[in-house]
UniProtKB/TrEMBL annotation:
Its main location: membrane. Residues 1-185 form the P-type ATPase C-terminal domain. GO terms for cellular component: membrane. It is found in: Membrane. InterPro entries: ATPase_P-typ_TM_dom_sf, P_typ_ATPase_c. This is Phospholipid-transporting ATPase. One of its GO terms (molecular function) is metal ion binding. The gene is LOC102596534. The chain crosses the membrane at residues 49-73, 85-107, 113-134, 155-175. It comes from the Eukaryota. Residues 1-17 form the signal peptide. It comes from Solanum tuberosum.
């Protein structure tokens, strides 16, 4: 199950990296400022790396402890028995797949049919594999024999836990996205909003004005380092004169 879980959560990530498109290609040509985000290291700085690490730690803690709390001493079967480790572990795996795929879906701003298949298909495939694996003879499936159709699916706590844990894992990330777009948007966020509200059609003057701003010269990369070195040398010369 662990290997299968990794496969199901890696395919949507590949789809994100291959098919994600912040803004259309024709818009990129009109707004050269978008190409400055890479040299400025806006997407791979330490704040973003630590943020993703923190999000991963938070998600893993929520999935683990919330499942433990919700399943602890709760009647899981009709005869009053509590959930065993197999049911608890399978529920955790389910929450992992839902949480990761939902966060990937929130990250995307451009969807294709391939991305839909890989994201929602990964979630659906998880249940299909649980169903198929549970029908294998007990000598091979062991404690997972008919785990979905006889143990998990009839239990409301399984579905409630999956929904609640997924919600708790995605809400902070959703709040972060909303806050960034509202109070600290990047260049591509602004252009996405302009395209969404069709300002490029309804207000062409503003569209051209934003495009002209994007063509203003900026000093990044090698030019910025040269200017910084010149300022440093000028500062040393001024100190010597004093």
């Amino acid at each position: 199950m662990m290997l299968f879980n990794v496969i199901l959560t890696s395919l949507p990530v590949i789809a994100l990296g291959v098919f994600e498109q912040d803004v259309p290609s024709d818009v990129c040509l009109k707004f050269p400022a978008l190409y400055q985000q890479g040299p400025k290291n806006l997407f791979f700085d330490w704040h973003r790396i630590l943020g993703w690490l923190g999000n991963g730690i938070y998600t893993s803690l929520i999935i683990f402890f919330l499942n433990i709390i919700l399943f602890y001493d709760q009647a899981f079967r009709s005869d009053g028995q509590t959930a065993d480790l197999t049911a608890l572990g399978t529920t955790m795996f389910t929450c992992v797949i839902w949480a990761v795929n939902c966060q990937i879906a929130l990250t995307m701003s451009h969807f294709t049919w391939i991305q839909h298949i890989l994201i929602w298909g990964s979630i659906a495939t998880w249940y299909i594999v649980l169903l198929i694996y549970g029908r294998i003879a007990p000598i091979y499936s062991k404690y997972a024999f008919r785990i979905l159709e006889e143990a998990l699916a009839p239990a409301p706590i399984y579905w409630c836990t999956t929904f609640l844990v997924t919600l708790m894992c995605t809400l902070p990330y959703l709040a972060h996205i909303a806050f960034q777009r509202s109070f600290n948007p990047l260049d591509h966020h602004i252009i996405q909003e302009i395209k969404y509200y069709r300002k490029d059609v309804e207000d062409r003057h503003m569209w051209k004005r934003e495009g002209s701003k994007a063509r203003q010269k900026t000093k990044i990369g090698f030019t910025a380092r040269v200017d910084a070195k010149i300022r440093q040398l000028k500062g040393r010369l001024q100190k010597k004169k004093v």
